[in-house]
C-alpha cells in the first residue's frame, strides 16, 4: 500500500528505473552495432533485432521479478543460492561492466568528435560528467531525471531520421521472420549489449536501492520491466529502420570508422549528422552512468571500501576505463566486442534468477509464473548456444 503523498515519488522511481535500463541497453555499442550489421546484412538484420527483443523480454522479466520478490541484489541472491557464487558473479559483472564502460567512453568520444572535440578529450570530459552526477548528494533522483530527458531526446531524433531516410518497411517485416542470411554474432552482440552483463540488473538494483521490492510489489515491477523493454525495443527498431533506409539507397556506403554517424549524415544531411552527435553522446553518457552505478552496486558490501567511499571508487572505475580506452583505441571494435563478451555472461545471471525463483526460502510467498520460467529457460538455452557460436565471429573481429 502506498503512503499518502509519496505516490509521485514512487512513480518517479519506477520511471527512473525504466529509463536507466532502457538507456543502458540503447548505448553507443547498440548504435554502432546496429549500423555495422545493417550495413552488412541489410533487411536480414531484422531477424537479429526480433530475436534480441524476445530474449530481452524473457531475461528482464525473470530477473526483475525474482530479485524484486527476494529483495536481494544479484550477487546477494547468488550467494544465498550457492555459497561463494555471489563474489564470482560480482566479479564477472564488474569486469564486464568495465569492458562496457571502455566502449561507452569510446562512444562519448565518437559523439563529441562530430563537434570537433578531440577523442581522448571528449572521453575524459564525459567521464567527469558521469562522476560529478553520481558523486553528488541525491544522485539517484538526479540520475533518474538525467536518463529520462536524454532517453526521450534519443527516441525523437532517431524517429526524425528514420522518416527522412524512407526505409522499406515491408521488406524489414518479412526478413524479421524469414531471413535469407543468418549470423550468430549480431544476435549475441545485440543480446549482450541490451541484456548482458550489468544491464539486466540496472533497473532492478536502482529500485532495490530506493526500497522497492517484495512479493506485493510484483505487479509494479512487471509493468516497469515491460515498459523498459518497450522503450528499448522502440529505439532498436527506429535505429535499424533509419540505417536500413540509408544503406538501401543506390551507391550509399557507410564510413566504417563511425558507421552510425555516416548513416545519419547520408540519411538527413548535415543536420542529421549533428543530431547524431547529440544522440550518440546522449546514449554513451547515460550508459556510462548506468554502467558505473550498477557495476559498483555489485561490489558494495557492508563496511567495505566501495560502501564507505563510493565517490573515489566511482572515479577509479571510470578512470580505469578511460585509461583502457586511451591504450586500446579502435572505438568501433571495442563497442562490438563489449556487447559480445557481455552476452556470454547472460546465461549465468539469468540461470541464477531462474533457479532461485523456485526457492520459497529466497522469494517468500511469491509464486513465479511457470510461463515466465519456461520462457526464461528457453532464452537461457538460446543465449548459451548463440554465445558459443559467436566466439568465432568475435575472433575474426580482432584478427
The count of strands amounts to 0
Q: Could you spell the SSE succession in H and E letters? A: HHHHHHHHHHHHHHHHHH
Alpha-carbon distance between the two ends: 57 Å
Please tell me the CATH architecture by its name.
Up-down Bundle
| Proportion of beta-strand residues | under 5%
How many helix segments? 18
Word description of this protein:
This protein has helices spanning 7-25, 28-41, 45-70, 74-81, 85-113, 119-135, 139-165, 169-177, 184-195, 199-209, 218-247, 259-299, 305-308, 310-328, 331-343, 346-356, 360-363, 370-398. α3 (45-70) crosses α16 (346-356) and α10 packs across α12 (259-299). The N and C termini lie far apart (57 Å). With 399 residues, it is mainly α. 81% of the residues lie in helices and 0% in strands. The protein is globular, with a radius of gyration of 20 Å. It has 18 helices and no strands. It has one domain: Amino acid/polyamine transporter I, CATH 1.20.1740.10. Mean pLDDT is 80; it is low at 1-6.
Quickly list its features:
399 residues, 0% strand, Amino acid/polyamine transporter I, mainly alpha, globular
Summarize the structure.
By secondary structure, this protein is mainly alpha-helical. 81% of the residues lie in helices and 0% in strands. The chain is globular.
Amino acid at each position: 500500500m502506498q503512503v499518502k503523498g509519496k505516490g509521485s515519488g514512487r512513480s518517479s522511481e519506477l520511471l527512473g528505473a525504466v529509463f536507466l535500463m532502457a538507456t543502458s541497453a540503447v548505448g553507443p555499442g547498440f548504435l554502432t552495432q546496429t549500423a555495422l550489421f545493417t550495413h552488412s546484412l541489410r533487411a536480414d538484420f531484422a531477424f537479429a533485432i526480433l530475436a534480441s527483443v524476445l530474449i530481452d523480454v524473457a531475461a528482464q522479466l525473470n530477473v526483475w521479478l525474482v530479485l524484486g520478490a527476494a529483495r536481494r541484489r544479484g550477487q546477494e541472491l547468488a550467494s544465498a543460492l550457492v555459497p561463494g557464487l555471489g563474489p564470482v558473479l560480482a566479479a564477472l559483472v564488474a569486469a564486464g561492466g568495465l569492458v562496457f564502460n571502455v566502449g561507452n567512453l569510446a562512444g562519448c568520444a565518437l559523439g563529441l568528435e562530430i563537434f570537433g572535440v578531440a577523442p581522448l578529450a571528449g572521453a575524459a570530459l564525459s567521464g567527469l560528467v558521469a562522476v560529478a552526477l553520481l558523486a553528488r548528494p541525491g544522485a539517484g533522483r538526479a540520475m533518474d531525471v538525467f536518463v529520462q530527458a536524454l532517453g526521450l531526446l534519443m527516441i525523437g531524433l532517431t524517429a526524425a531520421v528514420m522518416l527522412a531516410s524512407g526505409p522499406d518497411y515491408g521488406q524489414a517485416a518479412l526478413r524479421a521472420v524469414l531471413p535469407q542470411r543468418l549470423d550468430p554474432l549480431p544476435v549475441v552482440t545485440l543480446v549482450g549489449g541490451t541484456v548482458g552483463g550489468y544491464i539486466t540488473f540496472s533497473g532492478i538494483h536502482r529500485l532495490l536501492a530506493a526500497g522497492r521490492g517484495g512479493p506485493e510489489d510484483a505487479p509494479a515491477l512487471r509493468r516497469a520491466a515491460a515498459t523498459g523493454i518497450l522503450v528499448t525495443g522502440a529505439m532498436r527498431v527506429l535505429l535499424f529502420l533509419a540505417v536500413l533506409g540509408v544503406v538501401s539507397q543506390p551507391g550509399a556506403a557507410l564510413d566504417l570508422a563511425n558507421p552510425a554517424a555516416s548513416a545519419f549524415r547520408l540519411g538527413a544531411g548535415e543536420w542529421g549528422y549533428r543530431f547524431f552527435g547529440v544522440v550518440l553522446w546522449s546514449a554513451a553518457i547515460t550508459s556510462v552512468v548506468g554502467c558505473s552505478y550498477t557495476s559498483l552496486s555489485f561490489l558494495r558490501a557492508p563496511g567495505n571500501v566501495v560502501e564507505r567511499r563510493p565517490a573515489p571508487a566511482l572515479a577509479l572505475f571510470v578512470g580505469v576505463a578511460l585509461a583502457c580506452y586511451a591504450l586500446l583505441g579502435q572505438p568501433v571494435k571495442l563497442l562490438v566486442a563489449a556487447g559480445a563478451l557481455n552476452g556470454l555472461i547472460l546465461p549465468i545471471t539469468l540461470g541464477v534468477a531462474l533457479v532461485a525463483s523456485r526457492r520459497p526460502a529466497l522469494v517468500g510467498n511469491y509464486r513465479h509464473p511457470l510461463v515466465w520460467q519456461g520462457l526464461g529457460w528457453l532464452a537461457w538455452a538460446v543465449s548459451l548456444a548463440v554465445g558459443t557460436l559467436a566466439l568465432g565471429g568475435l575472433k575474426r573481429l580482432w584478427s
